[in-house]
């Protein structure tokens, strides 16, 4: 189908690692993105990965890309309560700037 | 860093009225701006692509006479929801593509409630 799929909810304990998964659709996407949205706010770009990379690490964030399976994941190490938000993956079909967003994963961090 | 500002952040209006939402790139020029709509607990749906000095390109299913988009300058795009109805209530988010950097920045969003 056309949808970029994500699981809807993820609950983790503070200090644990969180892994948010995404299955995208367009193999021509040049970049794949992860955005964070806090309640009532816009989108904040967390990180992105170029399509010819397998992995990218940026402080507590690790992005893994499996192009064969069109699977993208975001790992947040040492998850904190401030990480509670909705996380969207996004693809860039045809390598353009019109992004197609995933359905979003609500991350809840519990004490 | 680059900032995209949306105004108003929240607006409540009566059914049948029109509402204008502004999207400004504050410290960079944006040749292209995108307008998204987000339903509760749903993803963002691209509504239209706005290019400075030309007509907006609307996605399939989006009524261009309902959602008027104007991109009069390299730092401002506006979305006007005409004759708003309760089903138009939503969170509208814009993004701006930096003219020189090619980077994409998102606004904070505007929540529209139509009574």
The number of helical segments of chain B is 0
Range of strand content of chain A: over 45%
If helices are DSSP runs of H or I spanning 4 or more residues, what is the number of helices of chain A? 0
Chain oligomer state:
heterodimer
Distance between the termini of chain A: 38 Å
Estimated radius of gyration of chain A: 13 Å
Morphology call of chain A: globular
The secondary-structure element order of chain A is: EEEEEEEEEEE
Rg measurement of chain B, Å: 13 Å
- Helix and strand succession of chain B? EEEEEEEEEEE
- The residue-averaged pLDDT of chain B reads 91
Q: Main beta sheet of chain A, described?
A: 6 strands, mixed
Low-pLDDT runs of chain B: none
Kindly state the mean pLDDT of chain A as a whole number? 91
Share of residues in helices of chain A: under 10%
- Low-confidence segments of chain A, given as residue ranges, are none
Spell out the blueprint of helices and strands:
The complex is a heterodimer of chains A (111) and B (115).
Chain A: E1 5-6, E2 9-13, E3 18-23, E4 31-37, E5 43-50, E6 55-58, E7 61-66, E8 71-76, E9 85-91, E10 100-101, E11 105-110
Chain B: E1 4-7, E2 10-13, E3 19-25, E4 30-38, E5 44-51, E6 57-58, E7 67-73, E8 76-81, E9 90-98, E10 104-106, E11 110-114
Parallel strand pairs in B: 2-11
Antiparallel strand pairs in B: 1-3, 3-8, 4-5, 4-9, 5-6, 7-8, 9-10, 9-11
List the keywords.
heterodimer; A: 111 residues; mainly beta; six-stranded mixed beta sheet; five-stranded antiparallel beta sheet; 11 strands; 0% helix; B: 115 residues; seven-stranded mixed beta sheet; four-stranded antiparallel beta sheet
């Amino acid at each position: 189908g056309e949808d970029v799929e994500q699981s809807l909810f993820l609950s983790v304990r503070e200090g644990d690692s969180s892994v948010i998964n995404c299955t995208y659709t367009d193999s021509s996407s040049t970049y794949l993105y992860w955005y964070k949205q806090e309640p009532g706010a816009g989108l904040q770009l967390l990180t992105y990965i170029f399509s010819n990379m397998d992995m990218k690490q940026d402080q507590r964030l690790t992005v893994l890309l499996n192009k064969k399976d069109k699977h993208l994941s975001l790992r947040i190490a040492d998850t904190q309560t401030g990480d509670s938000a909705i996380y969207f993956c996004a693809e860039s079909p045809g390598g353009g700037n019109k992004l197609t967003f995933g359905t979003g994963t609500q991350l809840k961090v519990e004490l | 860093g680059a900032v995209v500002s949306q105004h108003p952040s929240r607006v409540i209006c009566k059914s049948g009225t029109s509402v204008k939402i502004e999207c400004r790139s504050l410290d960079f020029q944006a040749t292209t701006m995108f307008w998204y709509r987000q339903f509760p607990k749903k993803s963002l749906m691209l509504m239209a692509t706005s290019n400075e000095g030309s007509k907006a390109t609307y996605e399939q299913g989006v009524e261009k006479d309902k959602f008027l988009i104007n991109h009069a300058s390299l730092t401002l795009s506006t979305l006007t929801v005409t004759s708003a109805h309760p089903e138009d209530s939503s969170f509208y988010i814009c993004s701006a593509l930096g003219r020189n950097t090619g980077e994409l920045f998102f606004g904070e969003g505007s929540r529209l409630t139509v009574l």
